[in-house]
Amino acid sequence: MEKITLKALAKINLGLDVIRKREDGYHEVRMIMQTIHLFDQLTIARTKEPGIKITANLDFLPTDGSNLIYKAAKLLQDSCGIEEGVRVDLRKYIPIAAGMAGGSTDAAAVLYGMNELFHLGMKRSRLMELGVKIGADVPYCLMRGTALAEGIGEKLKSLPPMPKCPVLIAKPPVGVSTKFVYENLKLDEHTRHPNIRAQIAAIKKQDLRKTAEYMGNVLETVTIPKYPVIAEIKRAMMENGALASMMSGSGPTVFGLFEQEEQARMAYEQMRKSQLTRQLYLTSIYNNRRR
To answer: Residues with catalytic annotation?
Structure first.
C-alpha cells in the first residue's frame, strides 16, 4: 500500500465544564465529546524523497511546521526512525478555528494513516499517547464516538453511543481565540456548571430529549458577551425547532440537535436566509468508531 485516503471527522461538545485553573496554567475540564459526520479528507502517500509535503484545497492554510498535520508526521518519523518521506493532500471542509477540533482530527488521521502505510504496528492506545504531544484533542479524535474527557481533555472514558439525530452546524463570520476565552474565564460561586453526570445518565438511557436538556458550556460566559451573534444563532435555532442549541468548544461555532430530519432541514433553510452565519452544515451524530 503506497497511499491511503481517510475521513477526519469533526467533534462537538455536548457538555463542557471547567473545574478549575491548575497551578501549571492549564484548565481542568470535564466534558462530553461527540463525533459528527462532518469531515476533512486526507490522502496520505509514501514518497522515496525524504521530508513532509502538504497540499491543501485552501490557499491560506499553512503547510509548514506550524500545521498539526506536519507535526504529526514528523513525530512518527522521528519516534519510529522512518527515513522515507510522506505527502499529505488535505481537502478541508470542517470550519477553521471553530471549536470543532479540525486541526486535531487531521493530525489524528495522519497518525492512523502513517501507522497503516508504514506497517508500524502501533495499537490505538500508543497512537493516543503520542497524539497528546500534539494537542489535547488528538487522542479523542483517534478514539471517536461518545466520550467523557477530563484532565486537560486527554483523560478519556468511552461512553455508550448517544442517540443518533440530525445536527445543524452554524459558524458566524467571527474568529475566536481559545487563549482569550480561557484567560478571561472567571470561575466563582456564581458560575453555572453543566450537570455532566446527569447528561451521561441520559445518554446511557438513550434519552435524546434529556441529553439535550442537560447541554451546557461554561465558556459561553466569555464568548457570548464578546460576540453577541452567537446568542442570536442559538436563539434562531431554538425558534426553528432545535431541542437545544449550544456553542461548541471555545466557539464561535453553534450547533443544534433536532429530533426529525425534516425539521432540521427547515431550520437549515431559515438559518441560511437569516445571514447570521458564514458556514452552515446539516449533518448527523456519528457513532461508528472504525475508519
So the answer is: 11, 137
| pTM beyond 0.90 | yes
Tell me how far apart the alpha carbons of residues 88 and 107 are, in angstroms, rounded to a whole number: 11
SS3 content of the chain, % helix, strand, coil (to 5): 35, 30, 40
* 30-64 pLDDT per residue, tens: 999 999 999 999 999 999 999 999 999 999 999 99
Ramachandran class of 181: left when φ > 0, alpha when ψ lies in -120 to 50, beta otherwise: alpha
Q: Is the pLDDT of residue 227 over 90?
A: yes
Residues 260 and 173: their CA atoms lie apart, in Å, by: 28
Cβ distance 107 to 138 under 8 Å?
yes
Q: Which residue has the cell 452544515?
A: 281
Which residues, including other chains, have CB under 8 Å from residue 288's CB and lie 6 or more apart? 144
Residues 145-185 have pLDDT tens digits of 999 999 988 899 999 999 999 999 999 998 888 889 999 99
State how far the Cα of 18 lies from the Cα of 4, in Å rounded to an integer: 38
- Strands 244-247 and 216-217 turn out to be unpaired
Give just the sign of the alpha carbon dihedral 204, 205, 208, 212: negative
Cell representation of residue 267: 431550520
Q: What is the DSSP string of 22-66?
A: -TTS-EEEEEEEEEEEEEEEEEEEEESS-SEEEEESSTTS--STT
